[in-house]
Design brief:
mainly alpha; 2 domains; two-stranded antiparallel ribbon; globular
């Protein structure tokens, strides 16, 4: 028995290590509370009839006029939190963790399907699982849409590939039908699912170049036609019903240089640089000295390890050019085009860029890295894995200390604890959150920050509905509560 266990561990040590390391990295996320938009979506997911629940899936309008169409990952997901989990954030976070685990496995399966190489699949899975970019998706419940989108998106691609490579001369459409179903689920998960038909074209070109498919041009066009019809129908209904997403940070900028800059930042983040870095780098790659002043213990080792990481990748790339690795051009083409295509929907929102948008694009990065590294000596790619994990861990530590998500989770939990302990003494009195005279020296208003974190009165609508109408963030009240006490200073 023990012999079989050791054999299993020896054979699958890299995927096993991936899940163990990912658990160590992201397990703390399970203890987090709700924050920001969570409260709004918990509020609107609280419905009392099946008719209201079915209306979540209305493709042309939204009774709350929220301007997005993500019924599976916003309405239905938060409905679980209200109706089934009784507002328990850990239950929703457990669902997110399980979805993340499924995404990890699908990344490995897709890499295996594309290359036929188990080692490339295992390394792709490892690099994907241990990336710091998953911080936002696991710490912020509102980012669950990225995880479920990735699940449905990858499944659609996988079944499409199976359709292409397994049919031979006899065309059977079972896998194609399943792929289309997952495409529909992707569109109901997040709008960026619209890029799936483009990705399928890219995958087909890759399979054609690597001689993995026997479908001719006419058959592939016929196979992609249902996706095109669904996509055009979806776009027509979506923009007629919802239009472009709008908000304080949703400012569209179609400048090509700005889009290239945004894409480059996403690429750097996909190599485990911390999201916080973007706030400290000005025009002309000018580094804000405060970065090293306050976070030198993290930034210096991150930069040092990042340089080692780049050197190892460059070595692997030039080594592959000399050895003329089979299908290298095709893999580079698919990886680069996958990354650009799946990140494209958000690159024109330069003020609204976050690492949790990398859930899908990250596959393109880990796929090419694995393809290059796996052809080197095992000691070198193991060294790369160690460096990769080290950068990821240190970046995660810096991110959890500085990111708006973790700060918001702590603030909202403090507010919840305060009202749990003091609700009985408030009675019918009016409450107002206020800044103090000492807050005047701050570059921000603690009350404004608190209002953003609690999504206005949505927090109270969900957890303290009896108080909601008597809580304000300006004016006068019977009870004045200093906002700064919830911000940790």
């Amino acid at each position: 028995m023990m012999t079989k266990v050791f054999r299993f561990i020896k054979k699958y040590w890299l995927p096993i290590s991936a899940f163990i390391i990912a658990a160590l990295m992201f397990f703390p996320s399970l203890s987090g509370f709700f924050t920001h938009d969570d409260f709004y979506f918990l509020k609107i997911a609280n419905v009392s009839s099946w008719k209201d629940f079915i209306n979540f899936f209305n493709p042309v309008r939204d009774i709350e006029n929220i301007g997005v169409y993500r019924p599976l990952t916003l309405r239905a997901f938060y409905f679980l939190g209200v109706a089934l989990f009784n507002l328990n954030p850990m239950a929703l976070r457990t669902v997110a963790i399980l979805t993340f685990c499924a995404d990890i496995l699908l990344v490995g399966f897709l890499a295996k399907l594309l290359t036929g190489n188990v080692k490339i699949a295992a390394l792709s899975l490892f690099l994907y699982a241990t990336s710091v970019t998953h911080f936002g998706q696991l710490y912020y419940i509102g980012a669950y849409q990225e995880l479920f989108l990735t699940l449905t998106f990858l499944l659609s691609v996988i079944f499409f590939i199976k359709f292409e490579i397994e049919n031979g001369k006899r065309i059977e459409y079972k896998n194609l039908v399943i792929s289309i179903i997952f495409f529909l689920l992707s569109l109901m998960s997040k709008e960026t699912g619209v890029m799936l038909p483009i990705v399928l074209v890219l995958v087909h070109l890759y399979l054609k170049a690597t001689k993995r498919t026997k479908l001719n041009f006419k058959r592939i066009v016929f196979s992609l036609l249902p996706y095109a019809i669904i996509l055009l129908t979806y776009l027509a209904m979506h923009f007629l019903g919802f239009g472009f997403i709008e908000g304080d940070s949703y400012i569209w900028n179609f400048s090509i240089p700005r889009a290239v800059n945004t894409t480059f930042w996403y690429f750097l983040w996909s190599l485990n640089l911390p999201e916080t870095l973007v706030d400290f780098v000005g025009p002309g790659i000018h580094l804000n000295p405060n970065l090293l002043k306050y976070w030198s213990n993290q930034i210096i080792p991150i930069f040092a390890l990042f340089v080692i990481q780049i050197i190892l990748v460059a070595y692997a790339f030039f080594k592959s050019l000399k050895s003329k690795i089979l299908n290298l051009k095709s893999v580079i083409f698919l990886s680069a085009s996958w990354f650009v295509a799946t990140i494209l929907p958000v690159v024109f929102l330069p003020l609204h860029k976050f690492t949790y948008y990398l859930t899908l694009p990250l596959f393109g990065v880990v796929f090419i890295l694995s393809y290059l590294l796996i052809n080197l000596k095992s000691k070198i790619y193991i060294l790369f894995c160690i460096v990769w994990v080290a950068v990821s861990f240190i970046s995660l530590r810096l991110t959890t200390e500085t990111n708006w998500i973790t700060q918001g989770l702590e603030i909202s939990e403090r507010v919840n604890t305060y009202f749990k302990e003091n609700q009985s003494g408030i009675g019918a009195k009016k409450i107002v959150f206020v800044d103090t005279p000492e807050d005047s020296v701050l570059p921000w208003s603690p009350t404004a920050t608190l209002k953003t974190v609690l999504s206005g009165n949505n927090f109270f609508d969900v957890f303290y509905p009896d108080l909601s109408s008597r809580v304000s963030y300006s004016g006068e009240g019977d009870i004045e509560i200093k906002s700064r006490q919830f911000l940790g200073y």
